[in-house]
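Run log // design_07
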């Protein structure tokens, strides 16, 4: 078991444990703790090292070179919602796969960057896995 520790500008971030020697790191951005834990557990089961953030500002602080996947809710506290966060992540790190989820807000055409899938809550785990696969494929496809 490998323990992965990420350091952010505001101090140590949550630890993640994985059996994978070189895990991909996922950043889960969700202000509701139970929803965040649900996504974290699912990703850890898939071998990801997971870093958590409760809002977009924390997420951007924690978006380092190890992060390869961001899963974000749309509605969260602060001036930036998950749709704006998805656009900002793609601007800063176009190599990062992004998936947007929400139970309350459905994006309108043009709200999401190209290659960023949306998953409506409640969702089946298989639908979230499918969206992650789509997002990862969009980042590795030749442009």
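design_07 sequence
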């Amino acid at each position: 078991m490998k323990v992965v520790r990420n350091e952010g500008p505001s101090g140590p971030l949550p630890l993640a444990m994985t059996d994978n020697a070189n895990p991909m790191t996922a950043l889960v951005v969700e202000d509701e703790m139970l929803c965040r834990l649900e996504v974290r557990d699912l990703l850890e089961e898939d071998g990801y090292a997971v870093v958590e953030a409760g809002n977009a500002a924390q997420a951007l602080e924690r978006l380092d070179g190890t992060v390869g996947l961001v899963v974000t809710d749309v509605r969260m506290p602060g001036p930036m919602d998950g749709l704006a966060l998805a656009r900002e992540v793609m601007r800063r790190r176009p190599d990062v796969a992004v998936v947007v989820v929400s139970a309350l807000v459905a994006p309108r055409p043009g709200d999401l960057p190209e290659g960023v899938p949306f998953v409506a809550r409640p969702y089946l785990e298989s639908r979230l896995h499918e969206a992650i696969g789509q997002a990862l494929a969009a980042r590795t496809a030749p442009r």
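The chain has one domain: 2-140.
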